[in-house]
Specification:
By secondary structure, the protein is of the alpha+beta class. Helix content is 14%, strand content 32%. The relative contact order is 0.26.
Length: 160
C-alpha cells in the first residue's frame, strides 16, 4: 500500500507552501510527547499545527493547503496536522504508533530534506522535500528526528 511520489506538487506551489510553513507567520503549538507510546522519561517533544480535526477547520491556514489536499483525492478528511520535529544531536526514532484504531488512509508530505526517516511496517522513507507518501496509518509506524537540519517539517493527513 505504500506509494512514494517525488515532486508531488508543482514547483511554484510547493515553494509558496514551503515558505509559509517555514516562515515566521505560521504558528506552532508545543506537544510534550510525540505520541502516546512515548515513555515519560523521554524528554523529546515536537510542535504541531492542526489545520483540520473533528470535522472542522482549526486554522486560517487551511485554504493554503487545499491544492495539496485536492491531489490526495479524499472523500472525508479526518485530520490534517503539520509537524515540526526539532533537530537532535543523535538520530532518534520515536516510538511506533498507529494514528487511529478505525479504518483510514494516510498521506505524508515533506517540506524539507534532512536525514530524518519515516519508519513504516514494510519500509523506511527518506525525508525529501516535495515528496508525498501514501501509507497505511493503521499499522505501526514511527517518525524520527534529524541531525543535519534545524528541524523536520511535514504534514500528516488522515482521510477516508
Amino acid at each position: 500500500m505504500t506509494k512514494i511520489i517525488d515532486n508531488f506538487l508543482d514547483k511554484k506551489y510547493f515553494e509558496e507552501l514551503q515558505k509559509l510553513v517555514l516562515g515566521v507567520e505560521f504558528s506552532w503549538f508545543f506537544q510534550k510527547s510525540v505520541n502516546t507510546n512515548q515513555k515519560d522519561k523521554d524528554l523529546y517533544f515536537y510542535l504541531t499545527h492542526t489545520l483540520y480535526a473533528d470535522d472542522q477547520s482549526n486554522s486560517n491556514f487551511l485554504p493554503a493547503f487545499q491544492p495539496l489536499l485536492d491531489k490526495i483525492d479524499y472523500k472525508k478528511l479526518i485530520r490534517v496536522k503539520v509537524n515540526l520535529y526539532p533537530r537532535t544531536e543523535q538520530f532518534k526514532v520515536n516510538e511506533p504508533h498507529i494514528d487511529y484504531t478505525f479504518a483510514n488512509k494516510g498521506f505524508l508530505f515533506y517540506f524539507n530534506t534532512c536525514d530524518s526517516k519515516t519508519i513504516l511496517h514494510d519500509c523506511q522513507i527518506d525525508c525529501i522535500e516535495n515528496r508525498g507518501v501514501y501509507f497505511d496509518p493503521t499499522k505501526p509506524h514511527s517518525s524520527s528526528s534529524c541531525t543535519n537540519n534545524k528541524a523536520r517539517f511535514s504534514v500528516n493527513v488522515n482521510y477516508i
